[in-house]
């Protein structure tokens, strides 16, 4: 019993340490990435003409990500909107607080998307794209003030070109919006490959994750393994008990045999001598034995 309980405790500790290992994966913080990209874009924004989109050269270890920046005069942004990268920002969008010029930083996280962004129970089927607007106080700088876009009329459209719709034709794709602070909002996709945005943030497309066969079978194996282990333990325990009982029974039998022998001897002895007292008859051979050489 005691050993079974300690096995159980060992099992619990093992299981807990395993599951804590699983949760300890310190995933990448997307807000830190945004800050990093902002700083990088800020450094690279010098001497660039207003109104044209250009790529921000990222360090080599960010390979696979795509970041670009455009600087705009607020007047022209209001009049014509901004149609760059994956985002169609319609006219009549007001950046708040007011800035004479603004800079929009566009991100496409490419193969880094699922590294930074996850939707529980869903799989990303398009890269995560995002945009943020900042003030642009003078010709050569990207400011530090983030601007909020106040959208009254038509929303911003987010175009995704890198999904194969046919591949997912009979699953429902959903638009997902990641807002600051890690909140995730799912919505129906009304136009193929297009999502709707009402402000800056990060966007992608997800499908419900099919039950992962590998994980399930792994779990099954774990369960089977522990089950077999447990059964084995019980069997070992039963075997031990049986052995113990057999040994005990043999001992008892031997003792019984001994007593039978002595009883038989006694009765024979008694029969021969016809002594009336049993105590006397039993002590006598002992005494004799003691004096035997
Ligand atoms: C995870 O954390 C460990 C230390 O706790 C660190 O060495 C490692 O670089 C981190 N990984 C990521 C992807 O942030
Ligand atoms: C690239 O390296 C820098 C430090 O050199 C680090 O701060 C950054 O997180 C790395 N990028 C990625 C995507 O891990
Ligand atoms: C993305 O792809 C690039 C190469 O194109 C690679 O260097 C990078 O490690 C990949 N990132 C991830 C998270 O796999
Ligand atoms: C925005 O640009 C895309 C191509 O990048 C184009 O297909 C679309 O028609 C443009 N929209 C407007 C309103 O100009
Ligand atoms: C889509 O439907 C076809 C036919 O009904 C089926 O064979 C296929 O497995 C389905 N694909 C998905 C991803 O559900
Ligand atoms: C999303 O689509 C589902 C079915 O396709 C529908 O039942 C649901 O009402 C839709 N949600 C919204 C917010 O339109």
UniProtKB/TrEMBL annotation:
Question: In the UniProt record, does the keyword NADP occur?
Answer: no
State if Transmembrane is listed as a keyword. Answer: yes
Q: Where is the signal peptide?
A: 1-24
Entries under Pfam families matching the protein: DUF1191
Q: Name one GO cellular component term.
A: membrane
Listed transmembrane segments:
221-247
Which superkingdom?
Eukaryota
Q: What are the entry keywords? A: Membrane, Signal, Transmembrane, Transmembrane helix
Q: Which InterPro entries match?
A: DUF1191
Instruction: Name the PANTHER family on file.
Output: LEGUME LECTIN DOMAIN-CONTAINING PROTEIN, PROTEIN, PUTATIVE (DUF1191)-RELATED
The name of this protein is Uncharacterized protein
């Amino acid at each position: 019993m005691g050993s079974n309980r300690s096995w159980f405790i060992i099992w619990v500790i093992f299981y807990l340490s395993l599951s804590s290992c699983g949760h300890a994966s310190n995933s990448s913080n997307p807000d830190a990435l945004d800050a990093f990209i902002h700083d990088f874009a800020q450094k690279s924004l010098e001497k660039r003409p207003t109104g044209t989109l250009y790529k921000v050269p990222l360090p080599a270890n960010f390979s696979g990500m795509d970041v670009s920046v455009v600087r705009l005069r607020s007047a022209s942004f209001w009049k014509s909107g901004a149609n760059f990268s994956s985002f169609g920002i319609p006219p009549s969008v007001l950046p708040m607080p007011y800035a004479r010029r603004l800079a929009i930083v566009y991100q496409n996280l490419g193969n880094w998307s699922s590294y930074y962004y996850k939707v529980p129970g869903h799989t990303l089927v398009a890269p995560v794209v995002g945009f943020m607007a900042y003030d642009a106080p003078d010709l050569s700088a990207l400011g530090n003030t983030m601007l909020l876009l106040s959208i009254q009329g038509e929303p911003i459209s987010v175009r995704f070109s890198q999904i194969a719709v046919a591949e997912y034709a009979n699953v429902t794709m959903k638009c997902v919006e990641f807002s600051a602070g890690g909140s995730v909002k799912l919505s129906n996709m009304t136009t193929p490959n297009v999502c709707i945005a009402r402000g800056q943030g990060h966007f992608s497309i997800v499908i419900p994750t099919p039950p992962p066969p590998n994980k399930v079978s792994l779990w099954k194996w774990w369960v089977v393994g522990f089950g077999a282990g447990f059964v084995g333990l019980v069997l070992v325990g039963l075997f031990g008990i049986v052995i113990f009982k057999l040994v005990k029974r043999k001992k008892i039998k031997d003792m019984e045999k001994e007593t039978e022998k002595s009883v038989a001897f006694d009765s024979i002895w008694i029969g021969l001598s016809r002594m009336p007292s049993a105590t006397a008859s039993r002590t006598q051979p002992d005494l004799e034995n003691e004096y035997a050489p």
